[in-house]
Amino acid sequence: MLRLDGVTVSFGGVRALDAVDLEVADHETVCVLGPSGSGKSTLLRVVAGLQEPDEGRIRLSGQDQTLVPPHKRGVGLMFQDHQLFPQRDVGGNVAFGLRMRRASRPETAERVAELLSMVGLPGAQRRAVATLSGGEQQRVALARALAPQPDLLMLDEPLGQLDRGLRERLVVELRALFSRLGSTVLAVTHDQGEAFVLADRVVVMNEGRVAQSGTPLEVWQQPASEFVARFLGFDNVVDATVHGDTAGTPWGKLPVPDGTPAGACKLLVRPTGVRMTAVEDGLPCTVEARTFRGGDAAAVTLLLQPRRGPRLEASCALREAPEAGVSVGVAFDEQEVVRIGG
Ligand SMILES: Nc1ncnc2c1ncn2[C@@H]1O[C@H](COP(=O)(O)OP(=O)(O)OP(=O)(O)O)[C@@H](O)[C@H]1O
């Protein structure tokens, strides 16, 4: 459906996009994930035709888009701040794209009613935009973007402004909606949790380049670089040398899973793979901080200062969590030790 080849966009000396290759298949939801300034919005703008690339090609359904103006590209774009027209009611907002396409009145009314039901706001046509909650506005913006049935729906931080509970609920609803409609979606977000729920595939960006692309599970299980690992929230990353079934690290020898390629590399230790032992049985550490995280497992995050090597983050259940200031030993679970980059 969508294909970018070597797309580059520069602003002065900054390469907002640097030779980006990207594909989105029919009916696929791809989420572009990355820190602020990594080029996510520029990517959407270039596909929508709101920004011209300096180099590279963009194709939609096999057709080169270089000379195609934005309104003829068949893409729907929902912006970060969802900018509804305040002077129009809900129905007027949703009908906007249909009017532009010169749909008849009865046809428009029917489609607006259908879309509002779909986003969970049946019968809201006459409501004023100012009377809507943030979540309701977001749904109206989505209905407006879906109305002209774009070949490709693009969402820029679709749930950006909403509080956490609402985001968690809406993102699940969105996923179900896109799957029911068979939509092809390219969404950007800086929130990995949101991307992992919504996406069939995630694309992690860093400084205008694609750092990794894969299913949420692939990216989580096997981050391609230290950047991706840290972006996903994993801070236990060290230089290591793998030899057989162990790796030499600043924390001493760590077990690694069978088949880990030998040689110098970066190693990630997931916090759940850092287990508490008696001081004499493991790497001696002092508990520097203890943070209760809640969640299903009543998890606690521990910040440990080992006798040697950088700080370690550990995750354990509340009932097993030592107090701050206590000395503990630490052992490593090989299944949670990952060689970065394969
Ligand atoms: N119109 C512009 N003029 C100059 N520089 C720009 C322009 N648009 C973007 N940039 C720069 O290009 C880089 C990428 O910006 P972009 O908005 O695409 O990032 P982003 O990943 O969407 O960030 P955010 O998550 O903060 O929205 C940044 O360094 C930004 O300052």
UniProtKB/TrEMBL annotation:
One of its GO terms (molecular function) is ATP binding. Residues 2-232 form the ABC transporter domain. It comes from the Bacteria. It holds the Pfam family ABC_tran. Keywords: ATP-binding, Nucleotide-binding, Transport. This is ABC transporter ATP-binding protein. It comes from Streptomyces ovatisporus.
